[in-house]
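Teaching note: in complex prediction, the entire set of molecules is handled at once rather than each chain in isolation. The prompt given to students was simply: 'Predict the structure of this complex.' The entities are:
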Amino acid sequence: MMGVGPPPHLGTTLNTITPCAACKLLRRRCAEECPFSPYFSPHEPQKFAAVHKVFGASNVSKLLMEVPDNQRADAANSLVYEANVRLRDPVYGCMGAISALQQQVQTLQAELNAVRAEIL
Amino acid sequence: MMGVGPPPHLGTTLNTITPCAACKLLRRRCAEECPFSPYFSPHEPQKFAAVHKVFGASNVSKLLMEVPDNQRADAANSLVYEANVRLRDPVYGCMGAISALQQQVQTLQAELNAVRAEIL
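The expected output is the structure of the full assembly:
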């Protein structure tokens, strides 16, 4: 639809109407080629706030750029996930969750072996 | 033992003989109050290299300072763990490991329920 959306620009197009969550938090202009804007919607500002606090903006950008284009959304989501776990558990982060799950797998495996031994 | 170790200093004492892994990588002087030196031994340089790559030095320092002193070694180790997982799996990181373990827990739980139902 013509006439809808931002007006045409000379040079760099800016996401002036809705800057992404990253540019909003960092108080900077959101350029069309902003590395964050496809992955950090202004409607979910807490996602970028979390990765910013734990990894830092430049590391998030670097980590995203290191994966293929079609996997960046997944990478961004996993960084948000990890950052939130770290904010909830600043000492153990995801390692705490992984240890607890490994323990649970061991317990379940032992129970399963015991029940199977009972049958035979 | 007197006479062993670094000579006495005026002002800041430096870990001049064995700067920690962080200061060695960052090519800076390792001060006695270095935030990294208790947790990043020069004998395991790959540990700091991993957290530096994923979180950045200043974030690691900040994350360590945010936890109580007696938990900083655990926090440093969990950051190293997370960084290594992220370097092996840049797209999913620890979230990938957690998803796989959650899946395994579900499968084992279902098997256990099935075997138990068989007994009764």
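Point out the following to students. Chain B has five helices and no strands. The two ends of chain B are 71 Å apart (CA to CA).
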